[in-house]
Write a structure and sequence with these properties.
Elements (H helix, E strand, L loop, with lengths): L1 H19 L3 H28 L4 H28 L1 H17 L1
Helix pairs in contact: 1-2, 2-3
């Protein structure tokens, strides 16, 4: 489990870096990584529920609901971050520091 937490943090960092420097490839890689995390969470919830003896129809519904909720959460967090003033100030500071360094 801790490996997936590290993976999620790295994917998030790659996405933030891509957003700061306005590059599309890191954002694409981050999106694929977020999809992988959402699928992993969905499979883990299904495995836990399956171990409890829940019928397969309920497992399927829970799996899809978990996947959907993970996806919606990722989109909401990304949109909120992109529209926040804090993120804009952070991007400007990074760009100024980058321009001074080079």
């Amino acid at each position: 489990m801790w490996r997936w937490v590290c993976f999620a943090l790295i994917v998030t960092w790659i996405g933030l870096t891509g957003a700061v420097f306005q590059r599309s490839l890191p954002i694409l890689i981050s999106a694929v990584g977020c999809l992988m995390v959402a699928i992993y969470l969905s499979c883990q919830i299904t495995a836990v529920i399956g171990g409890m003896g829940v019928p397969s129809s309920i497992q399927t519904v829970m799996s899809l609901a978990t996947f959907g909720a993970s996806g919606i959460l990722i989109v909401v967090i990304a949109q909120t971050l992109r529209q926040s003033e804090w993120f804009d100030a952070f991007v400007m500071q990074v760009r100024h520091a980058h321009s001074r360094a080079y």
